Amino acid sequence: MTSAASFPDVELALIGGQQPFVLEELQSRFKIHSVYAEANPFAALERIGGSIRGAVGHGMAGLTRRHIELMPKLEICALNGVGLETSDLPAIRERGIKLTTTPVLFDDVADLAVSLALSCCRQIPLADRFVRSQQWENERLPLGRKLTGTRVGILGLGRIGIEVARRLEAFKTQIFYADPIKREDVPYTHVTDAGTLASTVDIFFLCAAGNPKGAPPMIGRTIFDALGPRGIFINIARGWLVDEPELIKALQEKRLGAAGLDVFYDEPMVPPALRALDNVVLTPHIASSTEETMRAMGACVIDNLVSWFSGRGALTSVT
Ligand code: DGY
To answer: How far is the CA of 83 from the centre of ligand 1 (A)?
Structure first.
């Protein structure tokens, strides 16, 4: 962190939960109101919103128009994450509020995406259960699949997608991507749309930036059928970008080979039908959850707030 400056008179509203060490650091520098933890956060903001100058949220708990209306003196909102789809960007821009993110998590997210793909190919969770349950003493685990040398597709070649691609180069894969922007600076093959991508590759990585929840899902039955019974679908973006009931059906009927999922439609609730499947690897939205990255993200939140309230401007703002 850049400085030890503290601002005991500056009141901040937490609109999303933070790691304990981030909370501690915030509390040592600012006056903190944990409104997200109240039974009715908006009622809490109706009481105290008038004196709030800063807010702190995260990728899944952004700054909405309602928050903004209840905090007339709000100057800055620091998100501990990079997801913007839960924040109302037009409302934020209208009021001239600074919104900052923590662009320090791309390596971890890409690491997890590749881990999920390897886990699906080599059936690592299944193999682990096989050893623990002593099934190994009586039978052999069905054969896994090779990741090296496969054709892989990345939907969304942004800062996460590019890191996934770089890692997959080491696995001697052929790399395809679909993105509105065709990049001239990468050696990967551009295709025009998600459907073409799915019918071209063995493993499909969803790395696109999220639409807000409630928008029509961008990935549904046609994509799963194009990937086919040997296809593998990986999602480290957002659960609501995917038609989850169709994904479950495709996996149950083996029209889709396997899926590695870190995100779900209604986290932390994961449908029992999905949890019951053997051809899925499931993780609880942990793509950036390493000690190192969580500390770096927390430092980024604090540094932005300290810099802003010291009059030096925000450091990693998106508005
Ligand atoms: C993000 O930063 O958006 C992560 O998904 C955590 O919410």
So the answer is: 5
pLDDT of 4 reads: 79
**d(CA 161, ligand 1 centre) in Å:** 14
**Would you call 267 a catalytic residue per the annotation?**
yes
The reply to whether ligand 1 has any atom less than 6 angstroms from the CB of 239 is no
CA distances 288 to 104, 125, 223, 237, Å, are: 9, 20, 27, 12
pLDDT in tens, 2-19: 577 999 999 999 999 999
| Cα 50 to Cα 13, 36, 72, 291, distances in angstroms | 11, 17, 6, 35
Measured from the CA of 60, which atom of ligand 1 is nearest? 7
Q: Please count the helices (runs of H) and the strands (runs of E) in the chain.
A: 12, 12
Q: Probe ligand 1: pick from 261, 288, 318, max atoms within 8 Å of CB?
A: 288
Low-confidence ranges of the chain (pLDDT < 70): 1-2
Residue of 180, 36, 158 lying closest to 103 (CA atoms)? 158
Eight-state DSSP code of residue 95: T
238 is catalytic: yes
Please write the tens of the pLDDT for every residue from 269-285: 999 999 999 999 999 99
The DSSP secondary structure of 148-171, one letter per residue, reads TT-EEEEE--SHHHHHHHHHHHTT
pLDDT value for 210: 78
